[in-house]
Design brief:
alpha/beta, globular, 15% strand, Rossmann fold, six-stranded parallel β-sheet, single chain
Length: 217
């Protein structure tokens, strides 16, 4: 069951909407992203999962990142066949670093205060939660959904709550299909001329090839 009040037959109509927020560089988007978002949508009864490409990720200040318009287009292609998924430009269209606390404030203003937001992240991001920008403000605005990934150790939730009391009752660990795919690995494969078939959606692979993305200069 999702965290927060349960949803029974009597209160289905009046219950607030549950919206997933899946942020990331999506450079490129791949089947690991899609499987995690679908699992979260199904298990947590989310009306929609918003894919939110980051504009200026503060945790990757020196890393080369594909320009936002290209990443946005890849996300559009990746999610086109799933009616539960939608693209949000809330982060790429605003200036400054992509802090989660600020993004959630923008989305809450767009979606209404009654909407319950579920921020989907990886287990590695959950482990670093106390070091996020304004983590208490993040937790005040959403529930965190940490998706498991092969090779990533689980987070001790009790220890996390001791370090960050605001996390108490606000974090759910979601076992997801074991797809061990990373954007870094995919970029390296493409740079080496190797296949990414069955790792990214066909439309994304075609877009990458047509634009020559991730190839050596």
């Amino acid at each position: 069951m999702p965290p927060g009040p349960g949803r029974g037959a009597a209160d289905t109509v009046s219950a607030p909407r549950r919206i997933g927020v899946f942020g990331g560089t999506f450079d490129p988007p791949h089947y690991g992203h899609l499987a995690a978002a679908e699992e979260a949508g199904d298990r947590l009864e989310l009306a929609r999962v918003l894919f939110v490409p980051t504009g200026l990720p503060p945790h990757k200040p020196q890393a080369p990142i594909t320009p936002a318009p290209l990443r946005v287009r890849m996300v559009e292609l990746a999610i086109a066949d799933n009616p539960r998924f939608a693209l949000s430009r809330a982060d790429v269209d605003r200036p400054g670093p992509s802090y989660t606390a600020d993004l959630l404030a923008v989305l809450r203003a767009e979606l209404g205060a009654a909407t319950k937001l579920y921020f989907i992240c990886g287990m590695d991001m959950l482990a670093s939660l106390p070091t996020w920008h304004a983590p208490e403000r993040v937790l005040a605005q959403c529930y965190l959904v940490a998706v498991t990934r092969p090779g990533t150790p689980p987070v001790d939730l009790a220890a996390l709550e001791r370090a960050l009391p605001a996390a108490r009752g606000r974090v759910t660990v979601l076992p997801a299909p074991g797809l061990d795919i990373s954007g870094r690995e995919l970029r390296a494969r493409i740079a080496q001329g190797r296949t990414v078939r069955y790792l990214v959606p066909p439309a994304v692979a075609e877009f990458i090839a047509a634009r020559g993305l991730y190839r050596p200069a």
